[in-house]
Amino acid sequence: MISQEIQDGRRHESLTAEHVKILWSKTYNTEGKPDWSHLFPYYHKDILFQDSIQRIEGIDAFKKMCSRLTDRCRQLNMEILSIAQNENVIIFDWIMTMMFKKFPSTPLYGASRLTLDENGLIIEQRDYYDLWGDIFNNIPRFNRMYRRFIKRKFG
User: Using CA atoms, how far apart are residues 12 and 14, in angstroms rounded to an integer?
Assistant: First the structure.
């Protein structure tokens, strides 16, 4: 699947697990804010993005969501731990460290599932993570109360 596809007049390689790893590593800098502009051509105009807190439909709404995330953080890093592909689905585990302007750095542990359409564009992205658990883990004493509450109510 290393063929060239054309979208919006631009040529790009079809996505593979290795290509995703390379592209995403360019997105999250070791210094400064992330830049998704090189990824947007790989997304279908009707992208459906969903995570723990939102559902976004369409490339324009997706770009706005990425911009909001950039605005909230002083710096954002991502380490891809593992990646796999099965036909038109690419799944990868990651640690995203968000450095906020006024709060301590917060690592989030999660995974993303990318579903590719017949042209190799990302038509659906689903991110899985425990936003509140990972944030609350960094708050002394509160982290234990939160985990006890979750265990008592759900586990």
Answer: 6
Helix (H) or strand (E) holding 153: helix 142-154
Domains and CATH numbers, the chain: 4-154 (3.10.450.50)
Task: Please choose, from the candidates 133, 142, 82, the residue with its C-alpha nearest in 3D space to the C-alpha of residue 112.
Answer: 82
> Among residues 10, 14, 3, which one has the least CA distance to residue 116?
14
CB atoms within 10 A of CB 106: 17
Closest CA to 77 of 52, 94, 53: 94
Q: What does R_g of the chain's alpha carbons equal in angstroms?
A: 17
Side-chain-side CA neighbours of 42 within 13 Å: the count stands at 19
Per-residue pLDDT 10s for the chain (155 aa) are: 333 444 554 545 678 999 999 888 877 665 667 788 889 999 999 999 999 889 999 999 999 999 888 887 777 788 899 999 999 999 999 998 877 766 667 788 999 999 999 999 999 999 999 877 766 776 777 777 777 777 777 77
